[in-house]
Amino acid sequence: MRRFDFLFIRQKNHIFKVPHNDICCIRSEGNYCHVITSNQTYSFKSSLSKLMETLPKPEFVQVNRNYVIPIKTIDQINLSENMVLTGKESFQIGGRYRDQLFDSMKVLP
After folding, report:
1. Residues 24-71: pLDDT tens digits?
2. What is the DSSP letter of 7?
3. Residue 63 contacts residue 91 (beta carbons within 8 Å)
4. Label partner for 70 (CA 20 to 30 A): which of 21, 36, 104, 109?
5. How far apart are CA 46 and CA 49, in angstroms?
6. How is residue 48 annotated by DSSP?
7. Which domains does the chain have, with CATH numbers?
């Protein structure tokens, strides 16, 4: 399957092109995903796992049950509190996603 560096998201009578570089995070709530950029939030009906299939790995990584973030936005990981810190947000690292997160990063000893 061919991957692009953007998503097309339908909002009512419009379809928006959202470049991957503009995405701050993706939040899942029930049957909906919310793609959050610095300017706008795009909401649509989809599971997070289905949306993850369209995103490039390891550029995007799921940090817990409800959040996917671009790996480039990670500023720091607090290992004692299991938190990922980005410029504006902090995200709890879910136990199931910890190994996947660290495998996506190239951590020096």
Report:
1. 999 999 999 999 999 999 999 999 999 999 998 889 999 999 999 999
2. E
3. yes
4. 109
5. 8
6. H
7. 6-104 (2.40.50.1020)
Distance CA 94, CA 109 (A): 23
Half-sphere exposure of 99 (CA within 13 A, CB side): 1
Residue 52 burial (10 A CB sphere; 0-12, 13-18, 19+): middle
Q: How buried is residue 9: exposed, middle or buried, by Cβ count under 10 Å (0-12/13-18/19+)?
A: middle
CA nearest to 36, candidates 3, 72, 68: 68
Q: Between these two residues, 43 and 2, which has the higher pLDDT value?
A: 43
Tokens 């300017």 — which residue?
39
Tell me the two tokens of residue 4: 């692009």
The span from the CA of 47 to the CA of 28, in Å, is 7
User: Which tokens sit at 70?
Assistant: 């671009």
0.70 exceeded by the pTM?
yes
